[in-house]
C-alpha cells in the first residue's frame, strides 16, 4: 500500500470522473453523491500518508517514489516518476482537503450540466495532484497543462456574466507563461544530453526502494553556467520565473486573477486560490531556486524578486481596500498574501522558506474559506456588491462568527494560522535585510484595514436592505464545509511545530544548494541534540 | 508548589469559559419542520423555515441596539434559546474568580520559591513538570536563521514566566478583572447578547494573561494581538450602531500600526541576541558586552516603543482610545483603563535591560509620555461626555507612566500602573453606575444633583477622584508624587523641563476630575423629569465592586510608601530583582545615567522632595478649588470658564485639537481635502485605477494587438497569399484557358456534332484526296 499510495491518491479523482461518465446526466443527485464520495474518498485515502510520511520525515530526498525514469515514452526519455518531499506532501494534503470541500460546497450552487461539472472538477483534482507529485519534467508539464483545461471550462461554463472573457484571459495568460516554461525545460533537456547523458526528462535519480534524490536534468543544471555562461542561467531563471510568476500571480502579472475569481463559480475560486496559485510558488521553490541558484542569488535578480514581492504586498492590499465587489476584494488580498509567500521565498534562508510554505498552506485554508464565505452570500442574494449588504451579523449570526474567525486568520491574528506564516516570513526576511521588512510590515496593517472595513460594511450596522432581512443562516452542509477549515486555522496556529519539522529537511536541501558557502555545513553536527544556546551578540570589542 | 507549577491553569480557565460561551451560548436551533428544509432559500420565496429565521433575527442582537440607545428596560420577548444567565455567571465569573485565587496562591508560592532561588524568575520552560511546549520552529536545532553573531536556532516556546513584574500584573489583572466581571453581571443584566459579552470578556482575560505571563516576545505578541481582538469585539459590542463598529475598526487598525513597530523591534532583538526569550535577552543585555547607546539596541527599543505607543494610546496613536468608549462601560474599565492599555508599560518595563542601554530611546519615551500627559489632560478639561473625560484622563495617566519609565524610574511607573488600575477602574465603573442610573445618558450637561440619589456611587467615585487628583493619603498621591520626584531628580535634573509639564498636568487632572464630580453630583439636576424619576442606586452586584475598589484606591498606595515619608517602599523592593541590573549597569559604564530608582533613594535630599510634594499637593487642591468655584452650583446653561476666557482655545480643546480630522485628511483618506482623496484610501483609489487601466490595460492591449495582428494576417492571407499567390495563378490559368473553354462547354450534342463534323471532314479528306 505504501508503495503505491501516491498513485492511489492521484488516480482516485480520475476514477471518480470515469465512473461519473457512466451515470445518466438526468440523475443529478446520484452524480452529486458519487462525486462527493470520490472527493471525500480522495481526502480520506490521503490521510494514511500523514503517519507514513512522519515516520520518514528526516529521510533526505524524495519519498514514496513510484515508477522509473523513461518508462513512459522511452524514445524521448519521459517517465511516470512520482514522489514527494515535505513541501509537496503538505500541498498534496491541502489539495485533497480543499478538493473535497469545494465539491461539497457545489451541491446546490451548480444546477446546470451537473455531470460535466463534476467530471471536470475531478479531472482538475488529478491534474493538480500530479503537478505536486511529478519528478519528471515531461510528466510535470503534462499535468501543468492538463489542469488548465478543466479550470478554463469551470470558469467558462459555470461562471458569471463575463465568464468567457475571464476564462480566455486565464487560459491564454497562463499559457504564455507555460510556453516560456516549456522552452526552459527543453533547454535543460538538451543541455543534459549535451553533457553526455542519454535523453531524459527526469530530474531525480531513484536511489533506492521508494526514494529518489537530485539527479537527471537537475544534476546537470549546475553545469549550465560553465558551459553556456551565467547569462543563460539567468535567462533560464527568467523563463521559469515568468511561467510561475503568472501563476502565483506576482505583480505585475496578476490581472487575470481578479477576473477569473470574480467570474468563477465559488468552488472554482476556492480551488483557484487555494491550490492553483500554490503551483506557482511550488514551481519557484521546486525548480527556480534549486535549479538556478546562481541566478536566484544574483543581486539584481534578487532585488527585483523582492521588490516585486513587496509591491505585491502593498499594492494588493491598497487596491483591495477600495474594491466594491467582495470577491474582487478577496482576489486582490490574495495578491497581497502571495506577495508574502514570494518575499519569504526569496529571503532564501530556512526561516523565510519555511514561512513561505506555511503561508501557502494558510492562504489555502483562509482564503479558500473567504471565497466560500462570499459564495454563501452570493448564493442567497446573487450579488457580491458590498453596498448591498449590512447588518448580516444579526440575520446570520453563525455565519458571521465563522467569517470573523476566518478574517482574523487571514489578517494574521495570533494564534491563528495566518500569523505563523507572516511572522516566519517577516522574520526570515528581516534577517536578510531590515529595509524589506520595514515595507512589508505595512501589509499587516493594511490587511487589517481592508478586511475589517469589509466586515463592518457587510456584517455590522442595522439591516437596511429589506432583501437581507430573511436570509437563512448556514445549513448543516455549509457548516460542514467550514468546520475543517476553522479547525485547521486554529490548530496550525497553536501547534505549527509538526509543519516546521516536515519542512525542515526539504528547506535545508534547497538552502544548501542555493547558498552553499553559508549553509553548506551549518548542520553538519546537528543531530538529535540542539546546538548550544545562541549568545549571538557580538562582543563589545568587535564593534 | 502545586499552584506555581500549574500556573498555566490561570490563563486556561477563562479560555475554557470563553469556549463554553461560544460553543453553547447560542444553543443549536431546533430543526425546521419537516418538508421545509433549508434548501428553499434565496429566490424561492419565504418558506416556513424563513419565517423561523425571521423571528430569530428579530430576537437576535438587535436587542443590544435598543438597549444601548434606550437604556435597560427589560424585554419580554427574551431569547429562550440562549444559555440562562445564571449559568453564564457561574462559568465566566467563576472562571475568573478561580483564576484570581489561583494567581494569589501561585504568587505566594513564588515568593517562597524565589527566596530560595536567588530571586530568579520562575520559567515553566526551565522547570520540570510541563507548562511549556515548542510552539514555533523545531526542537531539532536545524531550523536556523542568520543572526548578527552567526546562526541562531529558531525555536520559540510557549511557556510562562512568573517574576515580580508579571506577578504584580497577574494579581491586579485577575483581581480587578474579577471585580469587573461581578459588576458586569449587574450592568449587563438587561442587555441582549449576555453570553457573547461574557465570552468576549473571558477571552480577553485569557489574552491578557498570555500577554503578561508569556516568557518571550513572540508569546507576548500573541497576547498583545489577542487583547486587541477582544478590544475590537467589545468596542463593537453594540454592532448595530455604526459609530461603535467604526470605533472598533479604528482601535484595531491604529493598534496594528503599533504592532508593526513591535514586530520590527522583536525581530531586531531576535537578530541581535539570537533569541526571543526575556531571560536570555536580559542576561545578554546585562552581560556587559554592549555599550550604552548601542545603535541596534536603540533601534530595537524605539520600535518596541512604537508598539507601546499604539497599545497604550500615546501621541501620535492615542486617537483610538477615546473612541473606544463606544463599548459597554465595564469594558472601558477593564480593557481601556485598568489592564490592556497598560500593556505598553509592561512591555517597556519587561525590556528595561534594553531600554537602559538606549538613552536616546529613554529620552523619547519620557518626552512622549510627558507631552501625552498634558495634551490629553488639556482635552479632558472641556469634554462633556462623562466617559470621554475619563478616557482622556486615562491617556494622560498613561503618559505619566511613560514619563516615569523614560526617566529610568521603572518601579515608579509600575507602581502608578498598579494604583491607577484601582482608581481608574473605580471611576469608570462609577461612571457606569451613573449612566445606569441616568437611563443611558452620558452627557454631563444633562446631569447634576445626583449626590443624594446614588450615595454609594457618589462616595466611591469621590474616593477615586481624590486618589487620581493626588490628594495626600490616597493611592494616587503616592504613585504620582513618586513620578514627579523622579522626574525632577533623575539624571541630575536633565528632565526638569518635563517636571513642569507633569506638574501642570497634575493641576489639570485635579480640575477636570472635580469638574466631572461637580457637574455630575452637585448643582441643580439638569435632566428631564422622566429621567429624573428613574434615577436609582445600582444593584449590589455593581456597588460591591465599587466599594472594594475604593478600599484599594485608598490603601494600595501604602505598599509603596516612600522612605521620605517613613515608609520602606515595599513595592519597589519587591520589584528589585527585575530592575536590579540597572545599578550594575550604571556602575560599570560609569556614566551615571539611568540610575536605578532604588539606588537613588539614598541620594535624594528630603527637603527638596518635601517641597515638591507640597507643590503637587497644592496643585491638586488648586484644581479642586477652581472646579468648585466654576461648577459647584451649575444650572442649565452654565458657562465653561475656559470658554469665557478664550473661545478659540475652548474650541480647539473641545475639538481635540482637530487631530482626528487631520488624520482623516492625511492618513486614512476618509475625508477629501478639496475634492482630492489622500491617505491610504486615496492611494488605493489611484492604484485601483492604475491597475484597471494601465496594468490590465496592458494585458488587454496585448490581447488587442494579437487580435489586430490576427486580423491583418487574415487579410493578408485572404487577399495576398490566397488571393495573389494561390488564386492569382488560378485566375491566370482561367484567363489563359478562356479560348479553349469556348470549344469545350460540356454539351454532349455539340461534342457529337463536332465529332460528326470531324468525321465528315476526315471522310471528305480521304474522299477528295
TrEMBL record, chain A:
Membrane topology: Multi-pass membrane protein
Localization per record: Endomembrane system; Membrane
Major location category of this protein: membrane
Ranges of Low complexity composition bias in the record: 526-543
A Gene Ontology biological process term: electron transport coupled proton transport
Domain NADH:quinone oxidoreductase/Mrp antiporter transmembrane: 134-445
Residue segments, region Disordered: 524-543
Keyword Transcription belongs to the record: no
Pfam family, one: Proton_antipo_M
Domain of life, per lineage: Bacteria
Keywords: Membrane, Transmembrane, Transmembrane helix
Transmembrane region(s): 6-23, 35-54, 80-105, 117-135, 141-158, 170-190, 202-225, 232-251, 301-322, 329-348, 360-378, 390-416, 436-455, 476-495
UniProt keyword Ubl conjugation, yes or no: no
Entry similarity comment: Belongs to the complex I subunit 4 family.
Protein name per UniProt: NADH-quinone oxidoreductase subunit M
Species, as recorded: Candidatus Korobacter versatilis
UniProtKB/TrEMBL annotation, chain B:
GO cellular component: endomembrane system; membrane
Residue ranges of the region described as Disordered: 52-75
Cited Pfam families: Proton_antipo_M, Proton_antipo_N
Transmembrane regions listed in the UniProt entry: 6-24, 86-108, 167-185, 197-215, 221-240, 252-273, 293-310, 331-349, 361-382, 389-411, 417-435, 456-478, 498-521, 542-561, 610-627, 750-768
Basic and acidic residues compositional bias, start-end: 61-75
Membrane topology type: Multi-pass membrane protein
Annotated NADH-Ubiquinone oxidoreductase (complex I) chain 5 N-terminal domain residues: 152-198
GO MF terms held by the record: NADH dehydrogenase (ubiquinone) activity; NADH dehydrogenase activity
Signal peptide per UniProt: none
Keywords: Membrane, Transmembrane, Transmembrane helix
GO biological process: ATP synthesis coupled electron transport; electron transport coupled proton transport
Start and end residues of each NADH:quinone oxidoreductase/Mrp antiporter transmembrane domain: 215-494
InterPro entries: NADHpl_OxRdtase_5_subgr, ND/Mrp_TM, NU5C-like, Proton_antipo_N
Compartment(s): Endomembrane system; Membrane
UniProt protein name: NADH-quinone oxidoreductase subunit L
